[in-house]
Known about the structure:
Blueprint: H1 14-28, E1 35-36, H2 48-61, H3 77-88, E2 100-103, H4 106-112, E3 123-127, H5 132-139, E4 146-147, E5 152-153, E6 156-160, E7 178-182, H6 194-207, E8 210-214, E9 240-245, H7 247-250, E10 258-261, E11 267-268, E12 271-272, H8 273-284, H9 290-297, H10 302-328, E13 333-335, E14 341-345, H11 352-363, E15 365-366, E16 368-369, E17 380-384, H12 389-401
Parallel strand pairs: 1-15, 3-6, 3-7, 7-8, 8-9
Antiparallel strand pairs: 2-10, 4-5, 9-10, 11-12, 13-14, 14-17, 16-17
The structure holds D-malate.
D-malate binds next to loops.
Amino acid sequence: MINQNYLHIPGNYLFSEVAGRVAAYQEAHPHARLIHMGIGDVTRPLAPAVLQALHRAVDEMGREDTFHGYAPEQGYDFLCQAISEQEYAANGISIAPEEIFISDGAKEDCSDLQELFDQNCRVALCDPVYPVYAECNGMTGRAGQYDESAGRWRDIIYLPCIQENDYMPEIPREIPKLIYLCSPNNPTGVAMEKDRLQEWVDFANRTGGIIFFDGAYERYIQNQNVPHSIYSCSGAKTCAIEIRSFSKTAGFTGLRLGYTVIPKELKRDGRSIHRLWKRRLGARRNGVSYLTQRAGEAIYTPEGKKQVQSQIEYYKRNASLLRQTLLDQGYTVAGGVDSPYIWWKLDSETDSWSFFDRLLKQAHIIGTPGAGFGPGGEGYLRLTGFGSYEAAQVAACRLWEL
Ligand code: MLT
C-alpha cells in the first residue's frame, strides 16, 4: 500500500536531524547560549520597502474594489515583468515574463521539476550538495536503493566537488539526463566560472540532458568571472531551467517566494517543457499570495534594491569573519566569498557528525555536518553567515578556544 520508495529514504531530513539534536542538547543544558550556524535561515528583519509593500497589499485585500482571490497560476504580471527586466534584461539576457513561473520557493521547484521526466533518466548531482535533489529523486524511485552506511544512492551519478578538484564538478563518463548544478554551491560556497559552466551547457546540449540550475545564492557572487545566470552561457536556453529564490536574496525564508525560468525553446521528445510545467502547476498549485508577490516586487524599487543589498553585505561580513578566523587557525576552508556558507575541512580522522557534536558541546556552536550533503561531504562541516554580526564575533572567539 505504501509507496515503497519512501521506505528507502534516510530516517530524517538533514536539517530536522540537526534541529532534533540541538533541541535535545538545549533541553539538557537550558543555560547554554547556543550560536545557530546550522540551517541557512536568515535573521535580519524584512527590508522597509518590503514591509511597506506588504502593508499596502494587506489594505488592498480589505477593500472590495482591490481585493484579490486566486493568483494567476504563473504569477502576477507585475512581478514577472520586474524579474524579466531587472534580473535579466538589465544584465543583457533576454527572458520574457511568460518564461518565468513564480513559486513559493526554490526548494519546492527543485524537488518537483524532476517529476516531468521519465523514471529511467539518470540523475547527476554535485557531491556534496543540497540534499533535496537526491531525496526527491529517491521518492520517485529514480535514485535506486539508498545505502545508509555509505550515504549513497545506488543509481545517482555523483560529481565529486572536493578540495582536490577545487570543488568543481567534472563532466562524468556516464551520460546523465537530469543534471543538478548549484552555483554558488550549497554547501561548499564555491561558484562556477563562466568557462566551466559553458562546458556543462555544451555537454547537456550534445547529450540531450537538462540542467536544473539552482541559483539561490547568486546575489552573493562577487567574482566578476562567475555568471549570475546560466543564460549568460550560449545555448543554455535549449538545455537549462533556472531556479531562484527570494529567501537568501531578501530574507523571505518565512514569506516563501521564488521563481523558475523555463525558456520556450527548451524541448525534449519534441515537447515543450514550459507547457508541461504550466500544465502541472494548473493541476497541483494555486499560485503564490498577492501579498507575497507585492512584497517581492518591492525589492526591485530603488530603495528596495539598496536595502536588500545591505542585508547581503551584512551576511557576507559575517561569512568573511568566520572564514578568516578559520584560515588564521590554519584550517583549509572554502566558500565565504561568493557565498554565505563556509566549508570547513576537518582533520582527516574526524567524521562530521562527531565533530558537529563536539562543536555543539564544547563551543555551543551549531554547524551542519558535511556528510548530510552527500558522501563527498564527509570530513567537512558547514557554517553559515546568516546570524547577527555580534554572534559571529562571539563564535570567532569560541573557535579560537576550541
Ligand atoms: C540550507 O541550510 O542548506 C538551506 O537553508 C536549506 C533550504 O534552503 O531549504
